[in-house]
Write a structure and sequence with these properties.
By secondary structure, the chain is of the alpha/beta class. 34% of the residues lie in helices and 26% in strands.
Length: 447
């Protein structure tokens, strides 16, 4: 069944499923009826406070889920924030998105209270997700509870869960893949959603909750395969938010798991294509979505029910990628004779790391160039880590790393350099002078 909003989803499932468990959190179980009751009660409180734009530091808890649903029901604009955002970035993100209220860890909320602004006038039903972490290039994508519900419907129509299934939500709710495929997918299908207890519990959450289905990024799949953490009841794993090495998928299938791969963007409220059988990299399009391939191989998406309203307060950035309802993704791919999508790479100046994090290359490369005093360099991905490629012959790597330490020490571990490679001559460029990143990417595997 297709739902037009969070409220219609929760109302229908409360009436249809009543006392059936909807959410599990630690040792607490909340039925569909009780979930609707708690959301309604919290929405009344929020509506009475007179605030218009709520920032939620997403900790993945039951209270966090209730707060998000309730704030939307109360007519507020909701901004999904990462509670691990560096302090220096918080003021910029909070003022940029016009927050006049915050929810989350009390100390963090108190720390950020001075950054709050007067709020918004037209935020009802809107949810903002950030696309590129917490760099200066971060953009807030304006989605709605309607577009997110449509995305959940599309995904469930291609990959349905049974009422007796138990879906575990392991991924951060401030990432659209985690929100839609870790939470709404299960609620849409009327099954039980177990809310993971964070990275510290990755090892024991599967044993604690005994899920039958899970959505994961490639790095998390690799973690479980390496450490043997899959529970016996798990039968379905949906992989998304990054490139997944084929060997990981093969190993998962050898364990008897059904593995599906999903492709989508924050701008499309999550997935637009999912593999449902056979080749995990041959993706069937979701019902409301249409994909065409541009002459240069770029994937173009039309998704009228799931498309973003735009980038928040960035009209020129929106116009650059969304024209007449068609989104230029910056990704490369092709359609086979059956109309299935095969994704082959990226045009954008972004690296997608195995954990789904997006690394904005112009900013990082500019910082490295300033530290080294060099203008010609490139960052590419090798073995799931960013590596630096420099022109010319080999030099002392340790000396270079010492010069780069003021830059790299501020980066999360997954974004720190895995290696420094030397091209042997000038880096390849196009006729217009741009670095040919994909040629460097291919050659980097051999260096």
């Amino acid at each position: 069944m297709r739902f037009s909003s969070f409220d219609t989803l929760l109302t229908h499932q409360a009436e249809a499923l009543g006392g059936k468990p909807a959410l599990l959190w630690e040792d607490r179980t909340l039925s569909y009826r009780a979930l609707k009751h708690e959301v309604d009660a919290r929405a009344r409180v929020l509506a009475g406070e007179g605030k218009t734009c709520l920032g939620v530091f997403c900790d993945g808890s039951l209270a966090c889920v209730i707060e998000i649903f309730a704030a939307v029901q109360a007519g507020m604009q909701v901004v999904l924030l990462d509670e691990n955002t560096p302090d220096e970035a918080l003021e910029r993100l909070i003022t940029y998105t016009d927050l006049d209220a915050l929810w989350g860890d009390e100390a963090l909320v108190e720390q950020c209270r001075p950054y709050l602004t007067p709020g918004v006038r037209d935020g009802a039903g809107k949810l903002l997700f950030f696309t590129s972490g917490t760099t200066q290039a971060a953009k807030a994508v304006v989605l709605t509870d309607h577009s997110l519900c449509q995305s959940a419907y599309n995904g469930a129509s291609k990959l349905p869960l049974a009422p007796e299934d138990r879906l575990i939500c392991l991924l951060p709710l401030n990432h659209v893949f985690g929100f839609v495929c870790g939470l709404l997918w299960g609620l849409q299908c009327g099954c039980t959603v177990a809310l993971g207890r964070g990275a510290r519990h990755y090892w024991d959450d599967l044993a604690h909750y005994a899920p039958t289905a899970a959505a994961m990024v490639p790095a998390l799949l690799g973690f479980y395969l390496k450490h043997g953490g899959f529970n016996p009841a798990l039968r379905l794993v949906l992989i998304g938010a990054g490139d997944c090495p084929p060997q990981l998928l093969r190993r998962a299938e050898e364990l008897g798991l059904r593995v599906s791969f999903g492709y989508g963007l924050t701008e499309t409220s999550s997935g637009v294509a999912i593999s449902t059988s056979g080749n995990p990299f041959a993706l069937e399009l979701c019902p409301d979505d249409e994909i065409t391939i541009a002459p240069d191989g770029e994937i173009l998406i039309t998704a009228p029910t799931c498309m973003m309203q735009g980038y928040y307060k960035k009209e020129s950035d929106t116009a650059a990628v969304l024209k007449d309802g068609v989104l230029s993704t910056g990704d490369l791919g092709w359609l086979d004779e059956a109309g299935r999508l095969h994704v082959t790479g990226r045009k954008k100046e972004i690296l997608v790391l195995p954990d789904g994090t997006k690394l904005y290359l112009p900013e990082y490369e500019h910082q490295i160039a300033q530290a080294l005093g060099e203008g010609e360099l490139a960052l590419v991905l090798r073995g799931g880590r960013p590596v630096l490629v420099l022109p010319g012959q080999a030099r002392d790597k340790q000396e270079l790393l010492r010069a780069l330490y003021p830059v790299t020490c501020q980066k999360p571990r997954g974004q720190q350099l895995g290696d420094i490679l030397f091209w042997g001559g000038p880096l390849p460029r196009t006729a217009t002078g741009k670095i040919q990143r994909w040629e460097i990417q291919q050659k980097a595997e051999e260096l």
